Amino acid sequence: MRRKLLLGNWKMNKLNSEAKEFALASVPFAKLAKENNIDIGVAPTYLSLATVKEFASKDMIVAAQNVHFKESGAYTGEVSVPMLKELNIDWVLIGHSERRTYDNETNEKCHAKIEALLNNNMVPVYCVGETLAEFEAGRTKEVVGGQVREGLAGFAPEQVKDLVVAYEPVWSIGTGKNASSQIAQDICSFIREELRAMFGNVADEIRILYGGSVKPVNVKEYLSCPDVDGALVGGASLKIDSFEELLKNIL
Ligand code: PEP
Question: Cys-Cys crosslink for 105: which of 44, 48, 99, 202, Cβ 3.0 to 4.6 Å?
Answer without folding.
Answer: 99
